[in-house]
Amino acid sequence: MVDMKFNCEIKMTGSEKEAFCRMVDLMKEAGFSLFDHNGIIISLVFDGGHNGAIWNVPGNEIPDYFQRDLDCLHKGSIDDFYRDIENGCLKNVQFWREPGHNLFVTWQVKENYVLYMIGLDGWKKEQAIQIISGMVRFILEFYKDARDLDTVFSLSTE
Q1: Which residues are registered as beta bridge partners of 55?
Q2: Residue 149 gets which letter from DSSP?
Q3: Over the stretch 80-133, which tens digit does the pLDDT of each residue have?
Q4: 57 or 97, which is more confident?
Q5: What b/e readout covers 79-116, taking b as 16+ CB neighbours within 10 angstroms?
Q6: Cβ distance 128 to 30 under 8 Å?
Q7: What is the torsional sign of CA 73, 75, 80, 85?
């Protein structure tokens, strides 16, 4: 069976932190967690190399698996993680379903919303349908009273 090669774009209104909290809720609806099976948050930091920033939130410490030279990254708590989102240092994160099954999510901050891009590469058709269905359920509920927001969800193929 061929893996799906789809990309989603989702518009979330509000500040970067508010929008990200909504994205976490949306991903929960689709069956994903911000934390991997070890309780770790993973984001790639594009600082000339492809280094990873890792937050080991339950233990409030970060193992230094990857060298990080970015001054804007903080270490430790979930508050530090959200601070790194708000200060613009982080622009992506992985959401996890089970070991080895994740969605890579990137975002761009716009004037009054955040645009999230989600790659569905590597997911089988049935899995992609389940993931997209969870996202659409959340979006329909979240935007049920909204007006004049233009496109809030799109799905494209590669």
Answers
A1: 41
A2: -
A3: 778 778 877 778 888 999 887 889 899 999 988 999 999 888 888 888 899 999
A4: 97
A5: eebbbbbeeebbbbbbbbbeeeebbbbebeeeeebbbb
A6: no
A7: positive
